[in-house]
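Thread title: Can someone regenerate the structure for this chain?

I was given the following input by a collaborator and told the matching C-alpha cells would be attached. They weren't. Posting the sequence so someone can regenerate them.
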Amino acid sequence: MVRTLFGVETEYAITGIAPSGASTDRSRIAGQLVSRARAQHAYLNDPGGGIFLQNGGRFYVDCGTHPEYATPECTDPWEAVRQIRAGEQIMHQLATGIALTDPDLREVSILRSNVDYQGATWGCHESYLHRTEPLTLPRQMVPHFVSRVIYSGAGGFVPDRSKLEFTMSPRAWFLKDGVSTKSTADRTLFHVRGESLSSRPYHRLHVICAESLCSETATLLKLGTTALILATVDAGYRPGDGVQLRTPADSLRLFASDPRCEVKSRLMNGRQATALDIQRHYLETVETCRAAGHLPAWSETLCRVWREQLELLEDAPDSVARTLDWGIKLALFRQWSANRLDWSSLSQWAETWQQIRPAIATAGEQPAPRSLRRDPDLDSLLGEGSPIRHRLPELERELASKGQSLHGLRTFLQLQRELFEIDLRFGAISPCGIFSQLDSAGLLPHRVVLKGEIERACSHPPKGSRAEVRGKWIANYRRPGDARCTWSRISVPGERFLDLSDPFATTASWQKCGEPKAISKAVANLQRELFTRERLREWF
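Best answer:
Regenerated them for you:
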C-alpha cells in the first residue's frame, strides 16, 4: 500500500481594536491567544513555547507578533483541508473569547493574509514526507511550484505601490530563484529543511512558496497535486524533465500576471509553454504512475478533480470566478470598480500618481507630514495648507494631456484604498469576512468537506499516522505542565518517552531515556554537513 503524509503551517495576521477605535499591541494579543488555548484545550507544551493540541496539531506564536497553526500529519488532501479549517475555527473561537473578556479590546481579527502592501508577507508552508534523495527534488518539483499558481494563487495586487496591477499571487514578488535554507529572508522557490522530524528513510520537503487560501477546492488541489507528484518521484519517475524553466521566479510572476492563463514562458530545452501546458505534463506523468499501481487509492479522485480544473482554466478567468481564490477576487475587484474607473486604466492612474507624489515632499517651504508623504489623499493636497496647492493649474494641464482629471485622480485614490481593504478583509476568519459572507450566501461552490467533519477535527486527530497517537495521549494526560511534546516524541517525568519517530505509527511505543550524547551529537553534525551551502549550490 502506497502511503503519503503531509501537513500545513499557516501564519496568521492579527489585529486588535480598542474601544476608542485605536489599534492595540499585536504581541499582547498573540500571547493572550496562547494563554486562552491552554485554558480551553487539552494540550502539552513544546520546547519552543507553543503547545500541541489534542487534535495532534501545534499552535504557537512565531517571530513575536503573529500566531501560527500547524495541522497534524494527514494521509490524504481531504483530511488536510479538514484540519486547516479546524485550525481556523479554533483561532476564531480564541479571538472571539478574548474580545468578549478583555475590556481593553472591542474586536480581535484573525486574517488569512499574504501581503499587506507595506512590505510584509505571511507564509503558508507545506511539509511532505518522501523517501527520495533530496538533491534530486528541485529539478522535479520547481516547475510544478511555478505553474500551480493558476489554481493555488490567493489573488491580489502586485506589492508595489507604484502600480495597481492584479496578480494571481502577491507572494510571488517576494520569491527568488535557487535553493535556500532560509524561510524568512532570501526566500527561494525551493527550501531545504535539515530536520526530517522522522526516522530513516524518510525526508521532509518543506514548501514556502505558497499562500493561504480560502477556497477548499484550491487548497485540495494545491496539496493533493504536490503530494502525488512527490509520490511519483518516489516511485522512480522524473515528471519535471522536459519542463525545466530558464528563470523560474520570473516565470512565476509572468504566469501570475495573466488571468487568462495564455502567456508562455521559455523552457530550458528552447520550447515555450503555458502554466497549463506544464500542469498537463505533470498530470499525464502522475496518471501513468497511478496506472502502474504506485500511488495511493485517493489519487484517482484527485486526478479527476485536477483534470477538470485544468479544463476550466482554459476559459479563465470567468470559469473560476466562484471556485478559486484569485478568480473570486478578480471578479469582486472588477465589479467594485465598475461605473467608477475602467479596470484596464488603473495601472495608468497609479503611474500618474507616482509621478505626482515626489512633489509633495518638496513643493512647500516646510516638509509635508510623513503620513501625507506616505499615503496622502487628494482632499488633503487640495485643502488649506496643502504643499502643492499653488501647482494645481500645472497639475490639471498635465493630467489633461493624458486624458485624465483631478476628479478622476481623486476617484482613483479612493478606489485604491478600497481595493486594498477588500483584499485584506477577504480572508478574515469570521462571519464578517468577505469570503465568509459570499460563502454563507451560497455563491461559492468550493467546498470539498462537510462542516460537521471540521467540528470533529477541532478535537480529534486524523487516523493513520503518529498524529493519532499524539492526539489521544494529549487528550488523556492530566498534568500538561509536566510533559514536553515535539513532532517526534513526548517526554514525561521518569525514565521513559513516547517515541513518535515513525511517522506512520498508530500504537504507542515507549522507550527508555538516556540515549548516549555522543550519538545525538554525531547525528546533528551529519545533518548540518548534508545541508551545507556548497552542497545546496549543486542541487539547483
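The first strand starts at residue 6 and ends at 11.
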